[in-house]
Amino acid sequence: MLVAAAVCPCPPLLVPEVAAGAAAELDALRASCAEAIGVLLAAGPELLVLVGDGPQAEVWTEGGLGGFHRFGVPRAVRLPSGGVEGPELSPALSVGAWLLERSGTTLPTHACAVPADAPADRMLGLGAGLAGLADRVGLLVLGDGSARRTVKAPGYLDERAEPFDAELARALGAADTEALAGLDPAHCAELMVGGRASWQVLAGAARGAGLTGALHHDEAPYGVGYFVASWS
């Protein structure tokens, strides 16, 4: 059963070594992520599951090794309980592993990669399955909002992006599973929303769990929506 979840964005710039001279720009975001993960751990989960974008849908339970070499930084990360190397973590899951490393947790941790174009119904079903992996499951869900918030954003400005992200922030802060379940994959693709599939896994896992939400962070410093929320 799902007992808590933390929702965090996954830009590699969250890792100070990657951000280098610009690291201080995201200090407040890092602090919010730490706060949300603190709420997650305080709920007493016996199993953690990282959920984030990956090339194909898969769940693995025996380790997982990632890093930030593709960004020119020789920094490796692994799942907290990973006694073996396991599959290579995607960039999003690597950020999640780094966040858990900062928290100091040693809880058993699985990882779940989901492709950006995965059908909504499959993600909802996957979430329900993850929630049944243990009596007390906690999720760390990685994903970014629209990358079309400003003219300097990766996808340039789309006037629909800001109101979309505003509703998304509301849904994440309110633990509104139905709103997340109803996100349209095609519309999200047009707005370059990076977390849609992961958030629908969360929606599927949280249905019937009676969780309440809190929004810790909502900004778009580089034209990309970054949200931090906790559900407990």
Strand residue percentage: 15-25%
Query: How do the SSEs run, as a string of H and E?
Result: EHHEEEEHEHEHHHHEE
Rg for CA atoms: 16 Å
Adjacency order of strands in the biggest sheet: 3-6-2-7-1-9-8
| CATH structural architecture | 3-Layer(aba) Sandwich
Profile the largest sheet: 7 strands, mixed
Mean pLDDT: 94
Unreliable parts: none
Q: Note the quaternary state here.
A: single chain
**Overall SS class:** alpha/beta
Assign a percent range to the helix content. Answer: 25-40%
Find the CATH superfamily.
Answer: LigB-like
**Count of DSSP H/I helices:** 8
Task: Tell me the overall shape.
Answer: globular
Give an overview of the whole structure.
The protein has helices at residues 16-19, 27-42, 91-103, 120-131, 161-174, 177-181, 185-190, 196-206; strands at residues 2-8, 47-53, 58-60, 65-67, 76-78, 109-114, 137-142, 213-219, 226-231. The protein is of the alpha/beta class and 232 residues long. It has one domain: Protocatechuate 4,5-dioxygenase, Chain B (3-Layer(aba) Sandwich). Strands 3-6-2-7-1-9-8 form a 7-stranded mixed beta sheet, with helices on both faces. A two-stranded antiparallel sheet has the order 4-5. Strand 8 and strand 9 form a beta hairpin. Helix 2 crosses helix 3 (91-103) and helix 4 (120-131) packs across helix 8. The protein is globular, with a radius of gyration of 16 Å.
